[in-house]
Specification:
CATH architecture of one domain: Beta Barrel
CATH topology of one domain: Cathepsin D, subunit A, domain 1
Strand order of the largest sheet: 14-15-24-18-23-20-19
Largest sheet: 7 strands, mixed
Number of strands: 26
Distance between the termini: 82 Å
Length: about 350
């Protein structure tokens, strides 16, 4: 009996050793990807043809891409430059055509996940493709998934909330989708164009500014969250460029805004700046507990380059959300984000390759 227990113990130790070797091997390989010089397969040269994409604008402040699927259906894909990895929502009613193409992979060496290749979902070969993330690398089990894909995450409370407040969403397209392209978001005309590069000759133009990205030691972008600056009340504020910024209205918020909408396009600001605004400008409108997370404030004027626009709604977020959260994927600590409540006034062109952003009225 003792001999049998010994063999069992040795077998368990051997299995644990193999798991440990595998885990640390994958961790090493993932770290190598972060520091590599690899250029994504779907990077688009500056001379690519401009393409007008089929879209649907929500209240003129946020937008969905209309993804043409291989099965001739259309998926509504929410565009969020401030979001994370791109994914397909795990709906119960997923079509058999898509469900049959789901694949399995390993994330971070131990987490089993499902994904689907982008080319097996979208029927248009010219449609922009998400860039496989350098931070959340899928492996099968050692080989890295390098083709553009959509993650299919497990259902959790956050996803349930998203599906409740934005029930039309089928796909989420985050930072991994926008990287390596140049885009024009024309909010007044409700049009989105891709392959609209900005050239270095625009550097120094008052309505064009450099955007910052988190990079590895070789100067290669490892995240696609763009930082830029705005001016409010004479202060320059570093912010995230966030097309998907959404305020989820509480019952108080719906009453204060006199709406039955569950969400509004918005922007975000750090609590410390919000407190300063409330102290310096008690006349500025504010809406206590209007957002599920906290207060909303209406800023009369936001200046970007030569343009001043307003009014603009900002929802309040803890300072730690920026200094401890977003800093992991950004080049600097920002103090907020600009979304549809600012962007709705502009035609915005952002080039992730030349790292420039231009605002036009």
């Amino acid at each position: 009996m003792k001999k049998k227990l010994k063999y069992i113990a040795l077998s368990i130790l051997a299995v644990l050793a193999l798991v440990a070797v595998y885990f640390f091997s994958v961790r090493y390989l993932d770290e190598k990807v972060l520091t590599s010089l690899d250029v994504p397969e779907n990077a688009v040269p500056a001379g690519g043809d401009r393409i007008l994409l089929a879209t649907y604008f929500l209240d003129g402040e946020r937008f969905y891409f209309k993804l043409p699927t291989m099965g001739k259906d259309t998926l509504m894909a929410f565009g969020d430059t401030g979001g994370g990895i791109s994914f397909l929502l795990p709906r119960d009613g997923m079509s058999d055509d898509i469900a049959s193409k789901l694949r399995r992979a390993i994330l971070k060496g131990i987490m089993p996940v499902k994904y689907i290749l982008f080319e097996e979902v979208v029927g248009d070969p010219d449609f922009p493709k998400p860039n496989p993330s350098r931070r959340l690398i899928l492996r099968t089990p050692f080989n890295r998934v390098t083709k553009p894909y959509l993650l299919v995450p497990p259902m959790d409370e956050e996803l349930k909330l998203i599906m409740d407040v934005q029930s039309e969403m089928d796909v989420f397209l985050g930072q991994t989708f926008f990287m390596n392209y140049s885009w024009t978001f024309d909010y007044p005309k409700q049009q989105i164009w891709v392959n609209t590069p900005l050239h270095d000759s625009l550097v120094g133009h008052p309505n064009t500014q450099k955007v910052g990205f988190k990079k590895n030691e070789n100067g290669i972008k490892i995240n696609g969250h763009p930082s830029m600056t705005i001016e409010i009340d004479g202060d320059t504020i570093d912010v995230l460029f966030d097309t998907g910024a959404s305020m989820i209205l509480s019952s108080d918020g719906k009453e204060q805004f006199q709406t039955d909408k569950k969400t509004l396009g918005g922007s975000f600001i750090a609590a410390s700046i919000y407190k300063k605004w409330r102290k310096d400008h008690p006349d500025w409108k504010y809406y206590p507990n209007a957002d599920l997370v906290g207060d909303i404030i209406e800023v009369p004027s936001v200046k970007i380059g030569e343009f001043e626009v307003g009014p603009v709604l900002f929802a309040v977020r803890r300072d730690e959300a920026w200094s401890e959260g977003m800093i992991a994927s950004m080049d600097k600590v920002v103090k907020g984000a600009i979304g549809g409540s600012v962007l709705k006034y502009f035609k915005v062109t952002i080039d992730y390759n030349s790292e420039l952003i231009q605002f036009e009225r």
